[in-house]
From TrEMBL:
SUPFAM superfamilies: GroES-like, NAD(P)-binding Rossmann-fold domains. Pfam families: ADH_N (PF08240), ADH_zinc_N (PF00107). This is NADPH:quinone oxidoreductase family protein. The lineage of its organism: Bacteria, Pseudomonadati, Pseudomonadota, Betaproteobacteria, Burkholderiales. Residues 11-322 form the Enoyl reductase (ER) domain. SMART domains: PKS_ER.
C-alpha cells in the first residue's frame, strides 16, 4: 500500500508519499481499500500540530474516507469483505488502505457514490448534530450560516431547508453567494463588501436570526452575535479564519441567547446510538435528494499537497475529494 506519512507536524510540506506494509485487521477492526477521501479543515490543523488531537508521529492524516472492506478481524460479524463503507476514523484516510475499528464504519447504501460517501459523515453528521440536536431547530425559524459556501456551510443550508427553516447564507464573494442560492438559501450576504449587521437587520426585519451556524470564527463573531434574535442559539462549529474570537459575556445575557459548542466527533463517541439515528435520517434525506455533498474538486490521492493549497486559500466551494483508482 501507499500512504501520505506525517513525520513532523509542521505543515503539509512535511508530508511524504511512501510505500508501506499493508496492515492486517486486528480484533474488532476491518481493512478498507480506500476509494475516496475528503479533506476537512481539521486535517490541515493536524498536520500543522494545531488541532486538539495531536497524534504521535509518524502518522497518516485523513479523517474521513470511503471504500470497500477487504478483510475483517476477529469478532467482526456485521461487516463482510466486498461491502461498500464510509468511515470517520480520525486518521488514516490519505492512503490506499487503512485498518479502522468496526464501530466507526457505516455500510454505504446502493447508489451512493464513493466520492459523496467520503464527503458525507463528518460534514453532514456535524451539521445535523449542530442544527437539529444542539440548536433544536424548528420549522419556520431563521438560520444564518457563515462561511456558507464551504463544506459544512453547504451542508448547513441543505439541512436547515430540509428542517423547514428560512436560510440566510453569508459568504465572501458573489460567486459563493450564487452557489448558496442554488442550494436553496432564501437570501445571501456578501460580507466582503457590505456591513453584515445592516444586512442581517434588513433581511430579518430587525429581529435577527434564531440560529447562527459559525464555522469561521474570527472578527465576524461579535457583530453577528450582537444581531442575534432573543433566545437565539449561536453554534460554535470551528475557526476557519484562524482566530478564536472572545465574546463579551454581557451579550448572551442581554439577548437571552446561548453560545452552544458543537463537537460531533465526541458526540459520536459518547452517544453512538443517537449518532446512528442521525446518520440514518441523513441517508434517507440523501435518497430523497434533500442533501448532497457539494464537491468542487476531485483530485488523485497523490495530489494531496495541491488539495491542501486549495483549502488554505479559502477558495473552495464545498469539498475537495481525493480518489484512488
Amino acid at each position: 500500500m501507499h500512504a501520505w506519512i506525517c513525520e513532523d507536524p509542521v505543515g503539509p510540506q512535511a508530508l511524504t508519499w511512501k510505500e508501506v506494509p499493508t496492515p492486517s485487521p486486528g480484533k474488532g477492526e476491518v481493512l478498507v481499500s480506500i476509494k475516496a477521501a475528503s479533506l476537512n479543515f481539521p486535517d490541515l490543523l493536524i498536520v500543522q500540530g494545531k488541532y486538539q488531537m495531536k497524534p504521535q508521529p509518524p502518522f497518516v492524516p485523513g479523517a474521513e474516507f470511503a471504500g470497500v472492506v477487504e478483510a475483517v478481524g476477529e469478532g467482526v460479524a456485521s461487516l463482510k469483505p466486498g461491502m461498500a463503507v464510509a468511515t470517520f476514523a480520525g486518521l488514516g484516510g490519505f492512503a490506499t488502505h487503512a485498518c479502522v475499528p468496526q464501530a466507526v464504519v457505516m455500510p454505504v447504501p446502493p447508489g451512493f457514490p464513493f466520492a459523496d460517501a467520503a464527503a458525507f459523515l463528518c460534514t453532514y453528521g456535524t451539521t445535523y448534530h449542530a442544527l437539529i440536536d444542539r440548536a433544536s431547530l424548528k420549522a419556520g425559524e431563521t438560520v444564518l450560516v457563515l462561511g456558507a459556501a464551504g463544506g459544512v456551510g453547504t451542508a448547513a443550508i441543505q439541512i436547515a431547508k430540509a428542517a423547514g427553516a428560512t436560510v440566510i447564507a453569508a459568504a465572501s464573494s458573489d460567486e459563493k453567494c450564487a452557489l448558496c442560492r442554488q442550494l436553496g438559501a432564501d437570501a445571501t450576504i456578501n460580507y466582503s463588501r457590505s456591513n453584515i449587521r445592516d444586512e442581517i437587520k434588513t433581511l430579518t426585519g430587525g429581529r435577527g436570526p434564531d440560529v447562527v451556524y459559525d464555522p469561521v470564527g474570527g472578527d465576524l463573531a461579535e457583530p453577528v452575535f450582537r444581531s442575534i434574535a432573543w433566545r437565539g442559539r449561536y453554534l460554535v462549529i470551528g475557526f476557519a479564519q484562524g482566530q478564536i474570537p472572545a465574546l463579551p459575556l454581557n451579550l448572551p445575557l442581554l439577548k437571552g441567547a446561548s453560545i452552544v459548542g458543537v463537537f460531533w466527533g465526541e458526540f459520536a463517541r459518547r452517544e453512538p446510538q443517537h449518532n446512528a439515528a442521525a446518520l440514518a435520517q441523513l441517508a434517507t434525506w440523501y435518497g430523497e435528494g434533500k442533501v448532497k455533498p457539494v464537491i468542487e474538486h476531485q483530485l488523485p490521492m497523490q495530489e494531496l499537497p495541491r488539495a491542501f493549497e486549495l483549502m488554505a486559500s479559502r477558495q473552495v466551494r464545498g469539498k475537495v475529494v481525493l480518489t484512488n483508482p
